[in-house]
Amino acid sequence: MPQGQPTTVPDDGLTTRQRRNRPLLAVHTGDGKGKSTAAFGLALRGWNQGWSIGVFQFVKSAKWRIGEQTVLERLGELHAQTGEGGPVEWHKMGSGWSWTRKSGDADDHAEAAAQGWEEIKRRLAAQTHDLLILDEFTYPMEWGWVSVDDVVSTLRERPGFQHVVITGRRAHPALIEAADLATEMTKLKHPMDAGQKGQRGIEW
Amino acid sequence: MPQGQPTTVPDDGLTTRQRRNRPLLAVHTGDGKGKSTAAFGLALRGWNQGWSIGVFQFVKSAKWRIGEQTVLERLGELHAQTGEGGPVEWHKMGSGWSWTRKSGDADDHAEAAAQGWEEIKRRLAAQTHDLLILDEFTYPMEWGWVSVDDVVSTLRERPGFQHVVITGRRAHPALIEAADLATEMTKLKHPMDAGQKGQRGIEW
Protein backbone atom coordinates (compact mmCIF):
# COMPACT_ATOMS: atom_id res chain seq x y z
CA MET A 1 0.00 0.00 0.00
CA PRO A 2 1.34 3.49 -0.81
CA GLN A 3 2.75 5.41 2.13
CA GLY A 4 0.40 7.94 3.72
CA GLN A 5 -2.67 6.10 2.51
CA PRO A 6 -5.15 5.67 5.35
CA THR A 7 -5.84 2.01 6.10
CA THR A 8 -9.51 2.66 6.66
CA VAL A 9 -11.73 5.47 5.51
CA PRO A 10 -14.72 6.30 7.72
CA ASP A 11 -17.94 5.52 5.89
CA ASP A 12 -19.40 8.98 6.48
CA GLY A 13 -19.17 10.44 2.97
CA LEU A 14 -16.90 13.27 4.17
CA THR A 15 -13.50 14.38 2.94
CA THR A 16 -10.71 14.61 5.53
CA ARG A 17 -11.08 18.36 5.47
CA GLN A 18 -14.82 18.15 5.91
CA ARG A 19 -14.34 15.72 8.76
CA ARG A 20 -12.02 18.17 10.47
CA ASN A 21 -14.20 21.21 9.83
CA ARG A 22 -17.59 20.05 10.94
CA PRO A 23 -20.31 22.49 11.82
CA LEU A 24 -20.71 22.59 15.58
CA LEU A 25 -23.71 22.71 17.82
CA ALA A 26 -22.52 24.32 21.06
CA VAL A 27 -24.51 24.75 24.25
CA HIS A 28 -23.61 27.17 27.04
CA THR A 29 -25.66 26.33 30.11
CA GLY A 30 -25.51 26.52 33.92
CA ASP A 31 -26.39 29.20 36.48
CA GLY A 32 -23.15 31.16 36.20
CA LYS A 33 -22.25 34.16 34.12
CA GLY A 34 -20.56 34.11 30.73
CA LYS A 35 -22.99 31.96 28.73
CA SER A 36 -24.12 34.72 26.37
CA THR A 37 -20.90 36.70 26.64
CA ALA A 38 -18.87 33.72 25.44
CA ALA A 39 -21.32 33.22 22.58
CA PHE A 40 -20.87 36.83 21.49
CA GLY A 41 -17.11 36.36 21.81
CA LEU A 42 -17.45 33.50 19.29
CA ALA A 43 -19.35 35.90 17.04
CA LEU A 44 -16.27 38.14 17.08
CA ARG A 45 -14.13 35.27 15.83
CA GLY A 46 -16.70 34.32 13.23
CA TRP A 47 -17.00 37.90 11.97
CA ASN A 48 -13.23 37.94 11.58
CA GLN A 49 -13.53 34.82 9.40
CA GLY A 50 -16.01 36.61 7.16
CA TRP A 51 -18.93 34.57 8.40
CA SER A 52 -22.51 35.73 8.20
CA ILE A 53 -23.63 36.07 11.84
CA GLY A 54 -27.25 35.81 12.96
CA VAL A 55 -28.12 36.53 16.60
CA PHE A 56 -31.61 35.71 17.90
CA GLN A 57 -32.37 36.80 21.44
CA PHE A 58 -35.33 34.99 22.92
CA VAL A 59 -35.87 36.50 26.32
CA LYS A 60 -34.07 39.71 27.19
CA SER A 61 -36.32 42.75 27.13
CA ALA A 62 -36.31 44.41 23.71
CA LYS A 63 -35.76 47.68 25.59
CA TRP A 64 -32.27 46.56 26.47
CA ARG A 65 -29.68 47.38 23.92
CA ILE A 66 -26.67 45.54 25.17
CA GLY A 67 -23.16 46.63 24.27
CA GLU A 68 -22.50 43.53 22.20
CA GLN A 69 -25.40 44.35 19.92
CA THR A 70 -24.13 47.86 19.29
CA VAL A 71 -20.61 46.63 18.57
CA LEU A 72 -21.56 43.62 16.46
CA GLU A 73 -23.98 45.69 14.40
CA ARG A 74 -21.20 48.27 13.98
CA LEU A 75 -18.94 45.47 12.73
CA GLY A 76 -21.72 44.49 10.32
CA GLU A 77 -21.75 48.08 8.99
CA LEU A 78 -18.00 47.98 8.68
CA HIS A 79 -18.40 44.86 6.54
CA ALA A 80 -20.88 46.68 4.31
CA GLN A 81 -18.56 49.67 4.02
CA THR A 82 -15.15 48.05 3.62
CA GLY A 83 -15.70 44.35 3.01
CA GLU A 84 -13.89 43.46 6.24
CA GLY A 85 -15.31 40.59 8.25
CA GLY A 86 -18.83 39.37 7.62
CA PRO A 87 -22.42 40.61 7.78
CA VAL A 88 -24.26 40.69 11.10
CA GLU A 89 -27.97 40.50 11.84
CA TRP A 90 -29.25 40.89 15.38
CA HIS A 91 -32.88 40.11 16.17
CA LYS A 92 -34.63 40.44 19.50
CA MET A 93 -37.91 38.92 20.48
CA GLY A 94 -39.53 41.36 22.90
CA SER A 95 -42.87 42.40 21.46
CA GLY A 96 -42.63 40.46 18.24
CA TRP A 97 -39.52 40.21 16.13
CA SER A 98 -37.87 42.91 14.09
CA TRP A 99 -38.71 41.08 10.85
CA THR A 100 -42.44 41.22 11.61
CA ARG A 101 -44.38 44.44 11.81
CA LYS A 102 -47.61 42.89 12.98
CA SER A 103 -49.16 44.34 16.07
CA GLY A 104 -51.39 42.19 18.18
CA ASP A 105 -48.88 39.42 18.78
CA ALA A 106 -46.95 41.77 21.06
CA ASP A 107 -48.08 40.32 24.35
CA ASP A 108 -47.91 36.64 23.56
CA HIS A 109 -44.35 35.59 24.27
CA ALA A 110 -45.10 31.94 23.56
CA GLU A 111 -46.39 32.81 20.11
CA ALA A 112 -43.45 35.16 19.48
CA ALA A 113 -40.97 32.44 20.51
CA ALA A 114 -42.64 29.93 18.18
CA GLN A 115 -42.51 32.47 15.33
CA GLY A 116 -38.83 33.09 16.07
CA TRP A 117 -38.07 29.40 15.86
CA GLU A 118 -40.00 29.06 12.59
CA GLU A 119 -37.93 31.90 11.13
CA ILE A 120 -34.72 30.23 12.31
CA LYS A 121 -35.85 26.96 10.68
CA ARG A 122 -36.38 28.83 7.40
CA ARG A 123 -32.92 30.36 7.67
CA LEU A 124 -31.30 27.03 8.51
CA ALA A 125 -32.97 25.47 5.46
CA ALA A 126 -31.83 28.41 3.30
CA GLN A 127 -28.33 28.37 4.89
CA THR A 128 -28.60 32.12 5.48
CA HIS A 129 -25.90 32.31 8.18
CA ASP A 130 -22.61 30.61 9.02
CA LEU A 131 -23.04 31.14 12.76
CA LEU A 132 -26.40 31.37 14.49
CA ILE A 133 -26.61 32.36 18.15
CA LEU A 134 -29.88 31.39 19.80
CA ASP A 135 -29.52 33.38 22.99
CA GLU A 136 -31.57 32.18 25.97
CA PHE A 137 -33.30 29.66 23.73
CA THR A 138 -33.30 27.02 26.49
CA TYR A 139 -36.25 28.82 28.14
CA PRO A 140 -38.77 28.57 25.26
CA MET A 141 -37.67 24.92 25.06
CA GLU A 142 -38.21 24.43 28.80
CA TRP A 143 -41.57 26.17 28.80
CA GLY A 144 -42.91 24.13 25.87
CA TRP A 145 -43.15 27.17 23.58
CA VAL A 146 -41.17 25.23 21.02
CA SER A 147 -40.97 21.45 20.65
CA VAL A 148 -37.73 19.96 21.97
CA ASP A 149 -38.00 17.11 19.46
CA ASP A 150 -38.45 19.55 16.59
CA VAL A 151 -35.49 21.66 17.72
CA VAL A 152 -33.18 18.68 18.15
CA SER A 153 -34.12 16.97 14.88
CA THR A 154 -33.95 20.25 12.92
CA LEU A 155 -30.49 20.98 14.31
CA ARG A 156 -29.27 17.43 13.74
CA GLU A 157 -30.42 17.54 10.12
CA ARG A 158 -29.43 21.10 9.27
CA PRO A 159 -27.79 21.25 5.84
CA GLY A 160 -24.40 22.59 4.86
CA PHE A 161 -21.97 24.22 7.25
CA GLN A 162 -23.82 26.17 9.92
CA HIS A 163 -22.48 26.59 13.46
CA VAL A 164 -25.16 27.02 16.10
CA VAL A 165 -24.68 28.22 19.68
CA ILE A 166 -27.54 27.96 22.16
CA THR A 167 -27.37 29.64 25.57
CA GLY A 168 -29.45 29.52 28.72
CA ARG A 169 -29.86 27.69 32.01
CA ARG A 170 -31.17 24.15 32.35
CA ALA A 171 -30.47 23.02 28.79
CA HIS A 172 -32.65 20.01 27.95
CA PRO A 173 -30.76 16.68 28.13
CA ALA A 174 -31.72 15.92 24.52
CA LEU A 175 -30.10 19.18 23.46
CA ILE A 176 -26.89 18.35 25.37
CA GLU A 177 -26.99 14.90 23.78
CA ALA A 178 -27.20 16.45 20.30
CA ALA A 179 -24.48 19.02 21.03
CA ASP A 180 -20.87 18.65 19.91
CA LEU A 181 -19.69 20.98 22.63
CA ALA A 182 -21.42 21.77 25.90
CA THR A 183 -20.11 23.92 28.71
CA GLU A 184 -21.66 24.55 32.09
CA MET A 185 -20.99 27.92 33.67
CA THR A 186 -21.20 27.66 37.45
CA LYS A 187 -21.27 30.59 39.82
CA LEU A 188 -18.52 30.45 42.41
CA LYS A 189 -19.09 34.02 43.55
CA HIS A 190 -21.20 36.94 42.38
CA PRO A 191 -21.22 40.61 43.38
CA MET A 192 -25.00 40.43 43.93
CA ASP A 193 -24.11 38.18 46.87
CA ALA A 194 -22.50 41.26 48.44
CA GLY A 195 -25.58 43.37 47.68
CA GLN A 196 -24.07 45.06 44.64
CA LYS A 197 -26.34 45.85 41.72
CA GLY A 198 -25.67 45.26 38.05
CA GLN A 199 -23.65 47.94 36.36
CA ARG A 200 -23.01 49.36 32.97
CA GLY A 201 -20.26 47.72 30.92
CA ILE A 202 -20.36 44.60 33.07
CA GLU A 203 -23.97 43.46 32.88
CA TRP A 204 -24.92 45.11 29.60
CA MET B 1 -35.64 62.78 59.74
CA PRO B 2 -36.29 63.88 56.12
CA GLN B 3 -37.86 61.26 53.88
CA GLY B 4 -35.46 59.31 51.69
CA GLN B 5 -32.54 59.96 54.02
CA PRO B 6 -30.71 56.73 54.70
CA THR B 7 -30.76 55.80 58.37
CA THR B 8 -27.18 54.63 58.26
CA VAL B 9 -24.40 55.47 55.86
CA PRO B 10 -21.73 52.80 55.39
CA ASP B 11 -18.43 54.05 56.71
CA ASP B 12 -16.59 53.33 53.46
CA GLY B 13 -16.05 56.85 52.17
CA LEU B 14 -18.03 56.11 49.00
CA THR B 15 -21.00 57.91 47.47
CA THR B 16 -24.08 55.82 46.68
CA ARG B 17 -23.15 55.94 43.05
CA GLN B 18 -19.61 54.86 43.78
CA ARG B 19 -20.91 52.05 45.94
CA ARG B 20 -23.11 50.83 43.10
CA ASN B 21 -20.42 51.15 40.47
CA ARG B 22 -17.49 49.42 42.06
CA PRO B 23 -14.60 48.16 40.02
CA LEU B 24 -14.80 44.40 39.75
CA LEU B 25 -12.23 41.68 39.94
CA ALA B 26 -13.65 38.78 37.93
CA VAL B 27 -12.15 35.31 37.60
CA HIS B 28 -13.09 32.82 34.86
CA THR B 29 -11.73 29.42 35.79
CA GLY B 30 -12.45 25.69 35.31
CA ASP B 31 -11.57 23.14 32.64
CA GLY B 32 -14.33 24.06 30.20
CA LYS B 33 -14.36 26.42 27.25
CA GLY B 34 -15.46 30.04 27.28
CA LYS B 35 -13.13 31.49 29.92
CA SER B 36 -11.18 33.74 27.55
CA THR B 37 -14.02 34.11 25.08
CA ALA B 38 -16.32 35.50 27.78
CA ALA B 39 -13.53 37.89 28.88
CA PHE B 40 -13.19 39.20 25.32
CA GLY B 41 -16.97 39.50 25.17
CA LEU B 42 -16.73 41.80 28.21
CA ALA B 43 -14.11 43.80 26.31
CA LEU B 44 -16.74 44.38 23.60
CA ARG B 45 -19.09 45.86 26.18
CA GLY B 46 -16.33 47.93 27.70
CA TRP B 47 -15.23 49.26 24.32
CA ASN B 48 -18.82 50.30 23.71
CA GLN B 49 -18.71 52.27 26.99
CA GLY B 50 -15.64 54.13 25.77
CA TRP B 51 -13.34 52.30 28.17
CA SER B 52 -9.63 51.92 27.61
CA ILE B 53 -9.08 48.17 27.21
CA GLY B 54 -5.78 46.44 27.96
CA VAL B 55 -5.39 42.74 27.13
CA PHE B 56 -2.35 40.82 28.41
CA GLN B 57 -2.03 37.26 27.19
CA PHE B 58 0.30 35.19 29.34
CA VAL B 59 0.51 31.82 27.68
CA LYS B 60 -0.89 31.42 24.19
CA SER B 61 1.81 31.22 21.58
CA ALA B 62 2.70 34.65 20.24
CA LYS B 63 2.37 33.12 16.78
CA TRP B 64 -1.33 32.81 17.25
CA ARG B 65 -3.27 35.81 16.16
CA ILE B 66 -6.67 34.99 17.46
CA GLY B 67 -9.73 36.48 15.87
CA GLU B 68 -10.59 38.50 18.97
CA GLN B 69 -7.26 40.28 18.78
CA THR B 70 -7.79 41.28 15.16
CA VAL B 71 -11.29 42.52 15.84
CA LEU B 72 -10.55 44.33 19.12
CA GLU B 73 -7.51 46.01 17.60
CA ARG B 74 -9.71 47.02 14.66
CA LEU B 75 -12.18 48.52 17.14
CA GLY B 76 -9.26 50.39 18.73
CA GLU B 77 -8.39 51.83 15.30
CA LEU B 78 -12.01 52.78 14.81
CA HIS B 79 -11.81 54.68 18.10
CA ALA B 80 -8.72 56.53 16.87
CA GLN B 81 -10.42 57.35 13.57
CA THR B 82 -13.94 58.26 14.64
CA GLY B 83 -13.94 58.60 18.42
CA GLU B 84 -16.38 55.70 18.76
CA GLY B 85 -15.83 53.36 21.69
CA GLY B 86 -12.49 53.31 23.49
CA PRO B 87 -8.83 52.58 22.83
CA VAL B 88 -7.55 48.99 22.82
CA GLU B 89 -4.09 47.63 23.54
CA TRP B 90 -3.36 43.93 23.11
CA HIS B 91 -0.09 42.50 24.39
CA LYS B 92 1.13 38.93 24.10
CA MET B 93 3.90 37.32 26.06
CA GLY B 94 5.49 34.77 23.75
CA SER B 95 9.13 35.67 23.36
CA GLY B 96 9.11 38.79 25.47
CA TRP B 97 6.37 41.42 25.39
CA SER B 98 5.57 43.82 22.61
CA TRP B 99 6.61 46.79 24.80
CA THR B 100 10.13 45.40 25.24
CA ARG B 101 12.57 45.08 22.41
CA LYS B 102 15.23 43.29 24.37
CA SER B 103 16.49 40.07 22.94
CA GLY B 104 17.92 37.48 25.25
CA ASP B 105 14.90 37.22 27.51
CA ALA B 106 13.09 35.39 24.74
CA ASP B 107 13.42 31.89 26.08
CA ASP B 108 12.72 32.50 29.73
CA HIS B 109 8.97 32.34 30.12
CA ALA B 110 9.19 32.76 33.89
CA GLU B 111 11.14 35.99 33.48
CA ALA B 112 8.79 37.19 30.74
CA ALA B 113 5.76 36.49 32.94
CA ALA B 114 7.33 38.40 35.85
CA GLN B 115 8.09 41.33 33.53
CA GLY B 116 4.51 41.26 32.28
CA TRP B 117 3.17 41.43 35.80
CA GLU B 118 5.52 44.31 36.69
CA GLU B 119 4.22 46.24 33.66
CA ILE B 120 0.63 45.55 34.70
CA LYS B 121 1.43 46.82 38.21
CA ARG B 122 2.80 50.04 36.71
CA ARG B 123 -0.34 50.43 34.60
CA LEU B 124 -2.63 49.73 37.57
CA ALA B 125 -0.78 52.38 39.58
CA ALA B 126 -1.02 54.83 36.67
CA GLN B 127 -4.68 53.86 36.03
CA THR B 128 -3.89 53.39 32.35
CA HIS B 129 -6.92 51.23 31.52
CA ASP B 130 -10.53 50.89 32.61
CA LEU B 131 -10.64 47.16 31.89
CA LEU B 132 -7.61 44.88 32.09
CA ILE B 133 -7.85 41.29 30.88
CA LEU B 134 -5.08 39.06 32.24
CA ASP B 135 -5.61 36.07 29.98
CA GLU B 136 -4.30 32.72 31.28
CA PHE B 137 -2.69 34.51 34.21
CA THR B 138 -3.58 31.68 36.60
CA TYR B 139 -0.68 29.63 35.19
CA PRO B 140 2.19 32.01 36.06
CA MET B 141 0.54 32.23 39.49
CA GLU B 142 0.36 28.45 39.76
CA TRP B 143 3.94 27.95 38.61
CA GLY B 144 5.36 30.52 41.04
CA TRP B 145 6.49 32.86 38.26
CA VAL B 146 4.64 35.64 40.03
CA SER B 147 3.86 35.87 43.74
CA VAL B 148 0.24 35.05 44.59
CA ASP B 149 0.42 37.37 47.63
CA ASP B 150 1.75 40.21 45.50
CA VAL B 151 -0.96 39.71 42.86
CA VAL B 152 -3.78 39.55 45.39
CA SER B 153 -2.62 42.54 47.46
CA THR B 154 -1.91 44.62 44.35
CA LEU B 155 -5.37 43.89 42.97
CA ARG B 156 -7.09 44.51 46.32
CA GLU B 157 -5.35 47.88 46.66
CA ARG B 158 -5.57 49.04 43.05
CA PRO B 159 -6.58 52.70 42.89
CA GLY B 160 -9.48 54.31 41.07
CA PHE B 161 -11.95 52.44 38.92
CA GLN B 162 -10.26 49.58 37.10
CA HIS B 163 -12.05 46.37 36.24
CA VAL B 164 -9.81 43.32 36.05
CA VAL B 165 -10.66 39.94 34.54
CA ILE B 166 -8.33 36.98 35.08
CA THR B 167 -8.76 33.74 33.14
CA GLY B 168 -7.26 30.26 33.37
CA ARG B 169 -7.72 26.88 34.99
CA ARG B 170 -7.10 26.15 38.66
CA ALA B 171 -7.39 29.73 39.92
CA HIS B 172 -5.65 30.04 43.30
CA PRO B 173 -8.10 30.04 46.25
CA ALA B 174 -6.69 33.39 47.42
CA LEU B 175 -7.56 34.87 44.02
CA ILE B 176 -11.11 33.50 44.18
CA GLU B 177 -11.33 34.90 47.71
CA ALA B 178 -10.30 38.35 46.48
CA ALA B 179 -12.62 38.23 43.44
CA ASP B 180 -16.01 39.93 43.33
CA LEU B 181 -17.22 37.58 40.64
CA ALA B 182 -15.94 34.09 39.93
CA THR B 183 -17.30 31.64 37.38
CA GLU B 184 -16.24 28.08 36.78
CA MET B 185 -16.57 26.79 33.23
CA THR B 186 -17.02 23.02 33.24
CA LYS B 187 -16.83 20.81 30.21
CA LEU B 188 -19.94 18.71 29.72
CA LYS B 189 -18.97 17.65 26.21
CA HIS B 190 -16.22 18.58 23.76
CA PRO B 191 -15.71 17.74 20.07
CA MET B 192 -12.16 16.56 20.86
CA ASP B 193 -13.88 13.71 22.71
CA ALA B 194 -15.16 12.56 19.32
CA GLY B 195 -11.69 12.89 17.79
CA GLN B 196 -12.36 16.23 16.13
CA LYS B 197 -9.55 18.76 15.94
CA GLY B 198 -9.75 22.47 16.66
CA GLN B 199 -11.00 24.57 13.79
CA ARG B 200 -10.82 28.10 12.53
CA GLY B 201 -13.46 30.48 13.84
CA ILE B 202 -14.25 28.23 16.77
CA GLU B 203 -10.90 27.74 18.49
CA TRP B 204 -9.16 30.89 17.27
UniProtKB/TrEMBL annotation, chains A, B:
Ranges for region Disordered: 1-22
Record GO terms (molecular function): ATP binding; corrinoid adenosyltransferase activity
Top-level enzyme category: transferase
InterPro entries, alphabetized: CblAdoTrfase_CobA (IPR003724), P-loop_NTPase (IPR027417)
Keywords: Transferase
The protein's Enzyme Commission number: 2.5.1.17
Protein name as it appears in the record: Cob(I)yrinic acid a,c-diamide adenosyltransferase
Species in which this protein is naturally found: Propioniciclava coleopterorum
Gene: cobO
